[in-house]
Automatic annotation (TrEMBL):
Record keywords: DNA-binding, Sigma factor, Transcription, Transcription regulation
PANTHER family: RNA POLYMERASE SIGMA-E FACTOR, SIGMA FACTOR F FLAGELLAR
NCBIfam families: SigBFG, sigma70-ECF
Organism: Nocardiopsis aegyptia
Region (Disordered): 1-26, 275-298
Methyltransferase found in the keyword field: no
Protein name, per record: RNA polymerase sigma-B factor
GO molecular function: DNA binding; sigma factor activity
Superkingdom per UniProt: Bacteria
Amino acid sequence: MSSVTRAGRTRKTGHRRPHEHDPIEGEASANAALTEIGALPEDDARAAELREHVVMVYAPFVRRVALRYRGHGEPYEDVRQTAMVGLLKAVHGFDPDRGSPFVSYLLPTVLGEIKRHFRDHTWSIRVPRQHQENRARLRVAIGAFEQEHAREPTTSEIGGLLGMDEAGAAELLQADQAYRALSLDVPDSWNGDGSEGTSPEDRLGCEDQGLELVEERESLRPALARLPDRERRLLTLRFFGDKSQSEIAAELGYSQMHVSRLLAAVLQQLREDVGACDPKDSGARDAKDTVREPKKDE
């Protein structure tokens, strides 16, 4: 500990971590940690330690984001904890190989968690306060009725339970729907056989892992079409039949060494053909990189 004197007052200061003095230095160390995490197994102890460091660096930023929602109808502490959940998800889901800065992935993730929290815990539209107060009575009354009668009550029955007419009960039910916004996890009851349907989340699109390979495949297609039948069969057995060089040799009546030489020659020919399409084209270079024999003969 050291002492700092200011205006007649003395206060003690502790040794702070470097990123607490210099946010840029902290961000640089976090980026280095994220890069290292990308090369480690998910359950590696070192990866867990690095994730903890990244969380520590970006926690002040996430708290500032949460502060924007203070006074919006939810306790700040709940919003802060939700934002920290978003930070943890961002640390686990970030892919440094994409070349984007971490904060550009972090901010939408945190904001998404916060908005989901407000969607699940607050009214999605403004409704009269009377309906907000009666909602608790409505849920209790419906729950008790279902337990006793093993079915949902009708609107008129709900009105009788709450001491209001059918129109008032219908209006209260509509207000209740404003609170219980549709969840992505709730399945639709569309199946005619009474089985549980798919949820909206199941129908959302997802990242196509093969999309980045389209250009490479299209670059290879004409080069493959020009190969003689023997070479095409050789590639089919090796890369699509998942056969080892020894298995191919036995099937074609060649020696394993001869199969190895044939594969090396045909792959080299493909690399040259793809490169000849357009040497300056990055897609062609990427396709050349994909045309290679596995290192290990399984």
